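Lab notebook: predicted structure, single chain.

Context: the supervisor wants predicted structures on file for every construct in the current expression panel, including those that have not yet been purified. This is the next one on the list. No modifications to the sequence; it matches the entry in the shared construct table.
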Amino acid sequence: MSDTSVILMARAIGDWIGTLEQHSGWEEYRRKRLSHTLYHDDPFRTNGTPGDFVFPKEVEVQHDVVMTYLSAYQTLNALKQTEYYFRNYPFRNQEVSKFDHLVNICEIYFSRFYEMKERLKKHLNAVKIAVPQHAIEVGPFIKHFEKVFDSELRARNGVHHHGQFEDLELDRIFLTGSVAASRGEGWRRGHNADYRRVTKEWAGRVRKSGIRLDAFMEEVARATLATCNFLKAPQS
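Prediction complete. Output recorded below exactly as produced.
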């Protein structure tokens, strides 16, 4: 079975990062950055922020391609991780109610789609700058993303512009939880059963979305490798 473009991209990025060692001062800069991160609050061991390392222009645009790709991949992983947030309720004694916990995770989940769209756009535009003669059609790709994830993006925009995310199933969690606080064990059992069912459904929704987003990430990796000669996919 051949490796996916995402795997090949990871290898290519690893090889490209290795070439940075050829640039004078890069290794010393990395040591200073590490020291500043570890000891920035120690007045006896820090000499101030190292600032940004200045690469040659050609390398700088390549660096933007790599970093914007990694940024988009990070968002993909963060979105997938919301499955575990849905599956786990870490609070006790109603510090945060089950309803509030669910609403917060839903809003995080929807926000990741907008973040993913913007980061993919930024990456593809970085490719355009690095390889001006590229054949990647950024606009149609992003419009396709918006079409596939229209409901998620609409939910995110609703939260951003109009207020808290609303859903009938979540409203049920809120109502049964409110009644259970004063009406006893039967209502509490029903509330907990509703919560388990709804969180299972949302976790499944995250998994399905993750699979669809993997396909987008695979296409981006394939196009980037085909376009950027400085990222030669290593042979498996």
